[in-house]
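Narrative progress, year one. The postdoctoral researcher (J.K.) led the effort to move from monomer predictions toward full complexes, under supervision of the PI. The following entry was the first complex the group processed end to end, covering 768 residues in total.
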Amino acid sequence: MSIGWYLAVSAIVFAIGAGGVLVRRNPIVILLCLELMLNAANLALIGFSRMWGNGDGQVFALVVIVVAACEVTVGLGLIVALHRRRLPIDVDELRELQG
Amino acid sequence: MSATAAAWIALAAPLAGTIVTGALFRRLPGRSAGWIGTAAVAVSFVFALITLAKIQSVAPGARELTSTLWTIAGTTGVDARATILVDPLSVLMICVVAGVSMLIHLYSVIYLAGDRGYSRFFAYLNFFVFSMLLLVLAGNFLLLIVGWAFVGAVSYILISFWYRRTTATTAGFKAFVINVVGDIGLVLGTFFIFRHTHTFDLLASFHAASHVFASGSGDVTAGCLLLLVGAFAKSAQIPLHTWLPDAMEGPTPVSALIHAATMVTAGVYLIARMHPLFQLAPAAGDVGAVIGCLTLLIAGTIGLAATDLKRVIAYSTMSQIGYMIMGVSIGAYTAGLFHLMTHAFFKALLFMAAGSLISAMGGVQSLDRMSGFRRALPFTFGSFIIGGLALSGVPPFSGYFSKDSILLFAAGRGGWHWALWAAGYVGALLTALYTFRMIFRAFLGEPCAEARELIETGHLHHAEAPTNPANGEIEDTDVGFPGPDHAVAERAVPMRAAMGTLALLSIVGGIVAIPHVTSWLDHFLAPTFADSTLVGNASNGVLALGLILGAVVSLGGVAAAYFIWVARPALAGQLRERFAPLATLFENKWYFDELIDTLVVRPGAWFGRFSQNTFERVFINGVLVGGSTGLVRASSALVRATQSGMLRVYAALMLLGAAAVAFYFLLQS
């Protein structure tokens, strides 16, 4: 199976994730969409790794998974903190951090 | 010790004096600053005399000694070295400068005793002596320019010495600005010479000049004319003379030292020093002679009408320097320097005596207020008479011989120089008239209140409150204004010593060059001016005519002054009525101030305002400054607008950016 199919799936998943980040307002959904984008990238990496026949891409994908886990931890922590302070769970309302 | 080593020490001593009095000015008790300053200049004078003695032992053909301490800048085409040139001309100058300066320092020790700026005064005065010695000893154009600028700066500083007096600071500005015009002339003139000779060294320039310049060629004439501009500004020649009468705002010893005896004669020295160049530019010499002649006449007529004691002497200084400039411009170098020397003696004496008179008047300088000081100040009166007779050129005083030797040379040149000769005698008549007008008005007649007080009580008159004599403003006696109490000059020993020495020199100073009797000065200066091609050998008949005419004119002038201002006191007023337009012209100083104001100051001020209102406001402020701030402000507003805090907008922009980068690389491959 050629690399093209893997990349096509990866691109579609990435686009879905990106679209979700842009259109959704709920931070939890945005986090989910971010995970989609990361996993799309992982898919592409694994695909390339398979194409070249060496493990470097897989190592990279493992690193991305670790980083994604950390990121989710921080992101969910933030959402919990927002909830505790009774702030709206809506990224368009949370716009005080501006230049 | 060689002659050059002695000259270096003579140069260094006043600088050391400046540093000591300037650095320790808070710690020097009493009059010690004055004595240190005087001692420094005395050391300088002693070493100047040693230089004089040493150079006599050198063979006459080799009396152009140079000595270099270090190289300031030496690259291709530039040879700037700290070089002094010791030749008869510079030795004569350092002896006169250091000698007269020493006496004036001695006078100032007492004269300034009550002033709060005492140490400061001596630091400045010593620095002036250093600058002047640097100017006359300079062995290349660079040091000459440095010395030239230094004396101008010290002149400004000392005119404004009483810096809380607005009249004094204004006069200082005026002197500085006009002197800078002269500095520019000197620098540009140097450039014209340097362009062709490719060396800053004076002797090398003179040597090269005769090879690279054709006689009367454009560049050497332009260079010499620019040097003349420098000389005119420094020596207060028309039309750059208006600063000198105003410079009398400074303390009287400053007037005596800088604005009579030494600095203002720097122009004469410059022309004499540059004589090999001026010989190649006869047109420049003619300009100098005509301007000098005009100055001596115009200044003389203003002196007749001026009523401020010090300004009368200032105009007489201008007039006498007119003689010298005329002399050195027509080639009478020895005679011009002879007059420079005798003038330094009698003019310093006159200023010292004027200082004594002014302190007796409690600071008032107007001749209209003075009368009858003859018995109150006998020593000052004697000094004035001796100085006045020497200035008027009454035989056998020094001024008689020096003035006549200039005019004799003019007669010897023949042709149109006879007009200069005649004008010189008219000037001599004016000199005698205004000098003795001043002396008779101040010393003869009924004693005024101040003179009576001095005769009856033996104390100086004190005004209720110290005032500025120029505009009557009330002053205090703190630093920045004249001190509270002036000594009666003629009772203090140092002042008497200074005035007495100068009086003696004014009487006998002519002895160095009496025609057909002594010719020491001619012999001494001969090596410097041996290459002069301008000769003015008058016949013995002309010599006798000149000497007799000089004596008759000066004595006649004194007699006429006596007749007009003493014997027939009403006559002066009648003459003024009779020649009212002329008197108005003289009293308004020939309207030179107004002329310069109209031609230079007002257009300059108009242009300045125009630049400020139009160029500065519209172009600089509006376009350059406003434009760049506007650009920054607009672009920052643009960037600020994107900082909305909308997370999804940020994310979209980031994606767009990443997509743009990706597209770029895709298109590249």
